Structures
1.
Amino acid sequence: MSEAEARPSNFIRQIIDKDIADGKHNSVHTRFPPEPNGYLHIGHAKSICLNFGIAQDYQGQCNLRFDDTNPEKEDIEYVDSIKSDVQWLGFDWSGEICYSSNYFDQLHAYAIELINKGLAYVEELSADEIREYRGTLTAPGKESPYRNRTVEENLALFEKMRAGDFAEGAACLRAKIDMSSSFMVMRDPVLYRVRFAHHHQTGDKWCIYPMYDFTHCISDALEGITHSLCTLEFQDNRRLYDWVLENITIETQPHQYEFSRLNLEYTVMSKRKLSQLVSENLVNGWDDPRMPTISGLRRRGFTPASIREFCQRIGVTKQENMIEFSSLESCVRDDLNENAPRAMAVLEPVKVVIENFPEDQVETLTVANHPNKPEMGNREVPFTREVLIEADDFREEANKKYKRLVLGKEVRLRGAYVIKAERIEKDEQGNITTIYCTYDDETLGKNPADGRKVKGVIHWVSASKGVPAEIRLYDRLFTVPNPAAAEDFKAVINPESLTTKQGVVEPSLVSAAVDAGYQFERTGYFCIDSKDSTADALVFNRTVGLRDTWAKVN
Ligand code: ATP
Ligand code: MG
């Protein structure tokens, strides 16, 4: 990563600076701990940039750890997508990939240690009873009748759980802490439950699985994590995190710090909701370009640098907030404006016939790939007697503000000549089918010799040499800023979030690479659709428009 990306400080970095200055730690070890139950989204990118960014900047380490304690919801497809998304974002994990499931033997041994210390017991109340006994925020809980079993009895019953002699829900292991704690998580939390499920890493070895709160802190300690960074909803769980580590025999003492989640307007970020959109075919898969997933943003044409820049701009605090979608878009726009080569494509074509240009002639024009960066080179663009322009770039009549082609007036074709609209032809419905023009052959790369001014410049594509392409334009996936707050988030999906155009692109785009962004002159930033585009049927996605039109609408 370049110097230009040097990251600004935040409260977590200040804590680390102090820990290092105080000699509490001499190196930093973080981790990014996704649960492999869905694809990563832009919220995860915030956590990735924070954890891996800290490791990079402090010459420390950052583990990628799959927090895989819920076998029913997890899948190897998610494991693979997460690995590739982290790497695509420009980060690499230290050492081998970690799995919480690697520690199942140790976790089991620590559970037995807690039982031996009289700090855990096998519960046989039902889930409903457990909930009822737990009490509320205002009323203390009630102790379970199974709470004071002997160590021997608990050891035997826990072994019975492990051996598969209890049905799911018939027994669980609970920590014995405090049923009247003001922190609900401390009211004898469940540590282990029975699940007869096949696990993507451990197969059928286990039928008891540890809970997140028991697993996470021990995994952190076993990996020597120094700063365990998570989102604010785990603030109360920090009591339990510390309690577990204080009551087992383990060497390192990691600390948990919480920061606020990223919330983005006009989208949802919960994996449960994203997964519903996919399974109910409301979008075309996890990597649908309208999804806030890393793979969706990638397919839409976002660059890794633009996502890292976004994470840097939003910063890391403890304040809950909602970020405008346009601030994500402006990051990719800034990146592509600087780095994307220019090309021409016509989204809604109308035919222009240049009557004084020879019928079978193809003139090869040389056009710069970037207006301010000669080092990006040139490309060849064929110019022919028939070209296509945007229907919207022609008017029969217009006032002076309209700087495009008007009947009887002149306009410049980008990188080519000045043309003049002489007459038009319409179909029976009155739609313009052809604009007949003449061109001034003295105007290639220079102004007309007689000093007359031609202000407008429009883009175009050769009709015979251009290549048809499907062009997909995207809008917000939801019609309201906070769909998660709607009664039914699926009822506020934007029915016009995808518009498809049958356009034509300049021939150089046939060799466009996947993951390469282009500015199509005057219409926005585009990329090849990595899934649906083929050599015979090109498909382009619009990443973002040239300007923030959204801000104007609101
Ligand atoms: P969900 O609740 O949608 O399932 P999650 O938080 O459970 O999401 P995990 O896979 O457990 O998803 O997340 C991995 C890491 O990414 C966690 O440390 C989590 O705090 C962080 N994370 C998840 N969502 C966000 C977000 N919106 N903003 C910042 N960090 C996030
Ligand atoms: Mg989680």
2.
Amino acid sequence: MDLSDKVAVVTGAALGIGRTIAETLGQRGAHLVVADLQVEKAEAAGKEIAADTGRRAIAVQVDVADNASAKAMIDRAIAEFGRVDILVNNAGITRDNLIMRMKEADWDLVLNVNLKGAFNCSKAVIRPMMKQRYGRIVNITSVSGLAGQAGQTNYSSSKAGLIGFTKALAKEVGSRNITVNAVAPGFIETDLTADLPQELKDMAIQMTPVGRFGKPEDVANAVAFLASDETGFITGQVLSVDGGMVMQ
Ligand code: NAD
């Protein structure tokens, strides 16, 4: 999948899956906006990605939950590169608890970052993408949004909401050559899953036909596929990258 000279904005790209997505898009030729709340880590990631790939990679601080901040990120991308071809809504957080112990603030925060964040960033980029009659938006959802997960009513709701958002937006913008798809990772080795109790990790592997945790590269390769020119007839879809854990 060749992404030569495409411009990609990846949110939550300082660490984990987002960083690997940015690196993978860069290896395939894209210039990058490495956007994250943690600006120093985003700057370090941007420098490494630029050195590894020979592409331009700028770091931008963003709080995706904040509408003005998301708009400023897209404005900066356009000021630097003249256009945005690819938006990957990857920034996401968890604040797990059983509903009886879940604080309202933890519900609001997770919905605001994971779901409203995708709205804010997509809204900021959609007008320029419509004008240029080209765009690829990829939203990172989760198996928890497909199957539900105890202890994650907030996270599962945000990720299920993101699937509805993907389908609705795909219908709105399809005629302008803009596709909107989602990738639903299963258990992937990152900081988000590093602290899970060993018992839960063993259970997750048992539930995965492929018999292992996924790697960030597994997710990044699926994103690169959906971000490419060649997949212009695929839209509104959810691609599971979960070793077969949830089969629809
Ligand atoms: P991570 O915690 O390693 O990285 C998330 C990044 O997002 C961090 O760099 C963080 O600073 C950034 N971020 C957090 N809040 C932000 C905000 N408000 N604005 C901008 N950036 C913000 O997480 P990860 O495991 O790499 O997960 C990436 C995505 O993949 C998330 O959407 C997550 O829900 C999803 N996912 C992960 C797994 C997994 O097993 N790791 C499984 C399914 C889905």
